[in-house]
Amino acid sequence: MTAPHVLIVDDDPALLAALPEALRLRMDGVTVDTADSGAAALDRIAAREYEAIVIDIKMPGMDGLALLAEIR
Amino acid sequence: MSDSVAADRQPAVAEPGAAAGRLRAQVEALEHRLRQRDAQRRALLHILGDLNEFNKRLAHQRKAMLHILADYEQDRRRLARQTERLDNSRRALLHILQDSHQDKRKLENSRKAMIHIMGDLRETTAEMQRREQELRDKQEQLVQAGKLATLGELTTGVAHELNNPLNNTGLFVGNAVDLLELGGTDRGPIVRALRQALQQVGKATEIISHLRTFGRAAPVSREPISLRQVIERSLALMREQLRLREIEVTADLGPAEPVVVGNPIQLEQVFLNLLTNARDAVADAPRKAIRISGAVGPAAVAVAVADTGPGIPPGLERRIFDPFFTTKEVGKGTGLGLSITYGIVKEHGGTISVVSRPGEGATFLLQLPLAAAETNEP
Questions:
Q1: Angle at which helices B227-244 and B188-215 pack, to 10 degrees?
Q2: A14/B200 touch (CB, cutoff 8 Å), yes or no
Q3: Which of B134, B210, B264, B348 is the most exposed place for a label (fewest CB within 10 A)?
């Protein structure tokens, strides 16, 4: 299995600093990308495939559920 | 005497020589008597003259007496008149005294009545003061209730706001622990993670302490406060909610630093209520924006809170400040926010009004006296 790619979508910059580090420390070889909005997330998803995407539901602009619908 | 003359004549006849002597003697005696009589007559005449004189004097005196009597009579009459006048005066005085006594009694009655009235007035005043105190207590309770309602409104947004820093703290601390357990020799990442955790704790503490200050039923103290700070603190409490709802907020207070005398918590509540209303008003609007602007005058500061919502239906501009009046759906609003806001603003010597044209949003205009202007007044 190649190194998994994970995308984290959240509007809180502190979380975007903490969570990727936590994942990297606990999961060997994981690559974590971040996006601070639904729109930015869609750009990332268009660029490559992710094994997992973690989305915050409450976000300004496109919220998590809208983003999920968009991805599907 | 005639007997003695007759006796003398007898011898004169008898003896003419002797008789002549006797006659001579008799003549002498007669002359002597005549002289005597003459003297007596003269004396009598004198006496008569004296008497006449005396009589005249008496008549004079009688006349004088009559004059005196007339005078006396006049005096007596005058005296009688005076006495009568005096008597009249006395009677008049007595009347006056009686009247004055009556007046005094009337005055005394009036005074008593006055005292009664004043007593009543005092009682009424005391009653009024009691009622006023009651009203003030009720208002304070209402303010507290309104504060709790505002607090309830805020809770949803605040829960989210608190959840994030707590979550982040957990993550940063977890990272630090992991780094330590992995036995890395580089302390840099560990310290960085812990510092970030501290930052997040600070953020959560700030939110909590602010909520606690706001919710506390603190005595309503007055102090000079910066209105800018009040507005910024209210915005800080609302920011997360407004951001999540994509409501664009601008606050332009200009370069001035208006200071008002008041209670910071109460004034914060005014802006929280206005912001909450604006937030709800723009919920379904095509453009969601709240604009706070301020202008400082010589004696007062004016602040406008404008939204891009549907505005207030015509005819309701007055009623929206009434207690329990709400245009929000059942369960959405208490109808207390604006009435409490109105009460607080009035208590601070200010005014609040609303300007709204349907479709153009509502603008709440707030005026508060400046601290400097308030202290300059005599």
A1: 110
A2: yes
A3: B134
Which residues, in sequence order, are CB contacts of A57 under 8 Å at separation 6+? A63, A64, A65
Asked if A14 lies within 8 A of B196 by C-beta distance, the reply is: yes
Our CA-based measurement puts residue B254 at a distance from the nearest CA of chain A, in whole angstroms, of: 29
Of B160, B165, B178, Cβ closest to residue A58? B160
Q: Point out the residue among B172, B182, B246 whose CB comes nearest to the CB of A18.
A: B172
B interface with A, Cβ–Cβ < 8 A, is: 160, 164-165, 167-168, 171-172, 174-175, 178-179, 182, 189, 193, 196, 199-200, 243-246
List, edge to edge, every strand of the sheet that includes B289-296.
Answer: B248-252, B289-296, B300-307, B362-369, B351-356
Give the nearest chain B residue to A14 (CA atoms). B168
CA dist B337 to B18, B112, B343, B348, Å?
A: 177, 51, 10, 17
- A26–B contact, CB cutoff 8 A: yes
> Strand, helix or coil at B249?
strand
> What helix, strand, coil percent values describe chain A, rounded to 5?
45, 20, 35
Among B168, B178, B244, beta carbon nearest to A25: B178
Q: What is the pTM of this model?
A: 0.51
Task: Kindly state the tokens that stand for B95.
Answer: 């009347």
Tens digits of pLDDT across chain B (378 residues): 444 444 555 554 555 677 787 787 888 888 888 888 888 888 888 888 887 888 888 788 888 878 888 888 888 888 888 888 888 888 888 888 888 888 888 888 888 888 888 888 888 888 888 888 888 787 777 777 776 766 666 666 667 678 888 989 999 999 999 888 888 788 898 999 999 999 999 888 877 776 766 666 556 678 899 999 999 988 988 888 888 888 999 998 888 889 999 988 889 889 988 998 899 889 888 899 999 999 988 889 999 999 998 888 877 777 777 665 666 665 555 566 787 788 888 888 999 999 887 778 899 999 999 986 544 443
Give the orientation angle of helix B264-281 with respect to helix B188-215, to 10 degrees: 100
Of residues B329, B244, B15, B280, the one with CA closest to residue A12? B244
Element at B243 (helix H, strand E): helix B227-244
Q: Give A-chain residues touching B182 at CB under 8 angstroms.
A: 25
Which helix (H) or strand (E) segment holds residue B369: the answer is strand B362-369
The interface predicted TM-score (ipTM) is 0.81
* B243: closest CA of chain A, how far (Å): 6
Interchain pair A12, B168: CB under 8 A:
yes
